[in-house]
Amino acid sequence: MTAPNTAGGRPGRTVWAVVAGILLNVILSMGTDHIFHVLDVYPPYGVPMPQTELLLLALSYRLVYGFLGMYLTAVLAPYRVVRLLWITCGIGLVLGGMGIVAGIKMDIGGMWYPVVLALSVIPTTWLVATIYVARNGDR
Questions:
Q1: What is the pLDDT of residues 107-138, one digit of tens each?
Q2: In which domain, by residue range, is 56 found?
Q3: Count of domains forming the chain
């Protein structure tokens, strides 16, 4: 018989839930970016991409992938799902902040893009938490 999922019960599974969600988001985002580079939709690597329509394209699929990654975290979380989602949101904000700093240093063009991308983790987290709790309750 296994112990119930309590606050101190499964730290490894909790960490895995966060890492898996972030990894899914990163892998899907980078994979899609690469496909668009290969298909010449995006300019070659290292070349700034200031075109608003291309940045909106990137933002659109990254929002979807962010949602999927956050939902994976919720599904894999052994307990306190909503709390874990907000912790993951905090990690996403830190990573997004690093993206803003990198964008400034590298002069990638379209500085609104990394800011919007970084801040999008907040409504994404709220949406996933709301949907998850409506379907499953906060276990």
A1: 776 789 999 999 999 999 999 999 999 999 76
A2: 12-136
A3: 1
